[in-house]
């Protein structure tokens, strides 16, 4: 079992007291929104700016070569982290949102009017709105895979949803509200049997579960650096080489071209075809160090620790009157979202904050899902490997007091 105390010294931000008299120890339980960064990541970024900053792939000078080597080394670290076959299948983006927008803008240009895209009801807006935009632009049809009362998808319903016109199934690996972990490998097999490509939103899955894209056999995987100890503003789109090769460029500009004439251009090879303009080099460098850090802990260990914390949380929440937790009872990731009777989620979160406990309140960018479960907003506690069982206790105790006082 992983010992979270061992890692906390790597995260100076966690070791602080809040409030005017600095008497509230920070309990950071908003990791599904963004995680904290270890010193190795913070220092790698500083070091990059002190020693190597330059634009990449262009300068024929030492710093340019250094920056390029660091950037491409980061790409290779990410490739290895998700077990992709080729490093040119790793495209650096701003994050999950941009990765999905890239596919929604580019891949769909290969579709015909009337072609269908299947989404689930548990998607984050990032994995809904880009498809709605594409559907509007190109007369595509969106079909929805609804969520069952227990917060899971009924795999038996998938066959009926995938028809002769279905081109893509886009779904989350782990729900950021329900905590549900979808069986991606099984789902992908069913979709592929029907000739349907699969895009997985890995924003919550990749930071918390071992990832092997070749084993999962997904066609696309999108994720964000900032939810896995990396910096903000950097993310990844993994795509299978043959699909990425067939897709037209997403944005135009420097780097994504091989040649430009006055009447047109030739796109560059992968992955540069999809990386127009100066990239986020410091972000990539930081993400590379973040994946080294996560690998040194072990993703199996991180998942087991998530399960431990969330089971304790679910037991504690069960004992609190008026609390209703969304999502499955087991087989879920390290987060719990709940409503508390008629109390507004923001009031509960603000009360917890007064005692140093940082949680998120709201619809968590999943309006349709909130509607499905008849809630306007929920409070969400979400964990990472540096959270301790004592912090879960502190959260539950403070929540108990909130329910009495509010
Ligand atoms: N998908 C899921 C499941 C998420 O939880 C999030 C962020 O909360 C996103 C997508 C969007 O990620 P980003 O804002 O980093 O692009």
Report on this structure:
The protein has 406 residues and is of the alpha/beta class. The chain has 2 domains: 4-30 and 299-405, Aspartate Aminotransferase, domain 1 (Alpha-Beta Complex), CATH 3.90.1150.10; 42-296, Type I PLP-dependent aspartate aminotransferase-like (Major domain) (Aspartate Aminotransferase, domain 2). Helix content is 37%, strand content 17%. The chain contains 14 helices and 17 strands. It has helices at residues 5-8, 39-51, 62-81, 96-106, 129-138, 158-161, 184-193, 213-216, 241-246, 281-297, 299-318, 345-354, 367-372, 389-405; strands at residues 17-18, 24-25, 27-28, 90-93, 116-120, 141-145, 166-172, 197-201, 220-224, 235-239, 257-261, 264-267, 323-325, 335-340, 357-358, 360-362, 378-382. A 7-stranded mixed β-sheet has the order 4-10-9-8-7-5-6, sandwiched between helices. A 4-stranded antiparallel β-sheet has the order 13-14-17-16, with helices on one face. Helix 11 (299-318) packs parallel to helix 14. The model has no long low-confidence stretch (mean pLDDT 97). The site of pyridoxal-5'-phosphate (PLP) has 13 residues, from helix 4.
